[in-house]
# Entry
Amino acid sequence: MTFSLENRTAVITGGASGIGESCARLMHERGAKIIIADLNLKQAEKIAKDLRGLAFEIDVRDPDSINALAEQIDNDIGPVDILVTSAGITQLPVPAEELTVDVWDSVQEVDLRGTWLSAVAFGKSMIKQGKGCVVTIASITASRSVPVHSYAAAKRGVASMTESLAADWGRSGIRVNCISPGFTLTPLLKSLVERKERDGKLMKADTALGRFVEPKEIAQAAAFLASDEAAAITGINLNVDCGWLVSTSWHTYGGIRPPRS
Ligand SMILES: NC(=O)c1ccc[n+]([C@@H]2O[C@H](COP(=O)([O-])OP(=O)(O)OC[C@H]3O[C@@H](n4cnc5c(N)ncnc54)[C@H](O)[C@@H]3O)[C@@H](O)[C@H]2O)c1
# Structure
């Protein structure tokens, strides 16, 4: 089943790579006009060219940058129907006392503040037109205790703001939903595994399905949430994680059982 996004304009922060890029490609396939907003303008332009869309350089940490873009799109291109907030960075898993304030702050600034600023900048113009749909990107780390202290706190904040924005803007015709990806094979994760900063084998072994999530599988969930098929869905946090959240506690019992024939 496919969900049409014909005649929609979708802005995707972090759309130059990974999950954001997959969302841009799939939403384009489903008929949406794509606007990629990313720190990496060169890569954003390359993808936007492929999709006959537009690319803009933004820094989601900077309210002036994001507000100016929202205004420019509103004035020159027209109303935005869909916002996906995929711009994000991660951190190394380190003991709390070794996490520097600089690292703590940089993760909070991009992942938490950046998501908030993006949602509010584009939410304002959605309020004016009385409709719109925001899909935020949190993480499974929002729901479990993990040794990435700043990242997990920021992502829990994203899931929380999704709920409060959904309640605040529902009567204005705006739906706000969150996707929490599990370990997804994007350039970000691939490089962490290659640099041995994450154990790829363990990540897969700890999921019910025994594999990584593909970026396209996050995009499929985002396209569904952005479509009319999800018209009654707002304020949810949809875990797309190959069953990591339901499997990790099985470690104590010897791990996930092998397949039965
Ligand atoms: N890959 C995973 O396993 C995974 C799991 C859970 C959550 N996530 C989340 O999904 C989102 C996308 O991750 P990804 O794996 O696709 O990463 P990625 O590194 O492939 O893409 C992130 C994009 O965000 C852009 N970006 C970074 N900082 C920015 C800023 N300040 N302003 C504007 N753009 C900025 C980057 O240029 C890049 O294009 C992130 O929020 C990440 O936390 C990823």
Remarks:
- Residues 9-182+214-238 form a domain with the Rossmann fold fold (CATH 3.40.50.720).
- The CA atoms of residues 132 and 174 lie 5 Å apart.
